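[stage:ingest] chain + small molecule (phosphoric acid mono(formamide)ester)
[stage:ingest] validated
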Amino acid sequence: GKDILGLQHMTVPEIQLVLNTAQEMKGIIRRDIKKVPTLRGKSIINLFFEPSTRTRTSFELAGKYLGADVVNITTSASSVVKGESLRDTLMTVEAMGVDIIVMRHEAEGAAQYASKAVSPVIINAGDGAHEHPTQGLLDMFTILQKKSGFASLKVAIVGDILHSRVARSNIWGLQKMGAEIHLAGPQTLMPRDIEKTGVYVHNRVEDALEGADVVNILRIQRERQQKGLFPSAREYARIFGINKDRLALAKPDALVMHPGPMNRGLEIAPDVAYSEQSAIQEQVQNGLAVRMALLFLVLMGGKEIEAIN
Ligand code: CP
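[stage:predict] done
[stage:export] tokens:
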């Protein structure tokens, strides 16, 4: 087995293998074959220390469609509330003999810690503001469905970059594949020295949008902003919110993306969220295909993809 901790250290051939396998999985979903026995006898635990709708549900469905047994632990209903530590929780799950632990945690590095602490395969479903690799992969897969490739693609990532694990995984993944990344957002939500990663940073969102092929709009993460949002929500929407007028600066066929959940009317206007250019619903569908691909690859490793057909 192989842990999926982040895209910073994933190689280009590995990313390509996941994207190719996700294409096969999408075929299975389209043909409505919702039960294949590929992972029969395997068990997956979703261990989520933070809320989730998309990631948790799609991992559960992905596992079930491939024939695995999937169990969800929601930490608010677990012995974590009695003070059980992360290490002890992981060891408890390990003792039950599971094959994969899909984990979301508020601390950066939690997935890496888990991979050293216990033997099951660890899939990072988000660790603090660090990485959300499966989101990065589903975003890349969604782009590839609509664009011919990543080389020279201009991708604008807009909003709360500072708190965004989605931004980091997108930046690391897309740069490796040859895309050009343009960031925009308030200085209060822009990480220091982010330019050192080779991205372009803009103070004006209009400059990031100019001629963009993809516009990825991030959620304003109020729960991670202890001192409140600065600029205020109203100012943010006015200065950085993506509305039709701003979107018109991007290429006419620019793809609009958002990882969800959205603050509609704050970072994204409703008519942009539901426009023809929006790939937001497709991102969710593609998340299922990408997570099926990952579960298959980490458990069945070297076997040919034809084995599932
Ligand atoms: N995009 C994403 O991770 O959504 P959830 O928090 O609902 O899983």
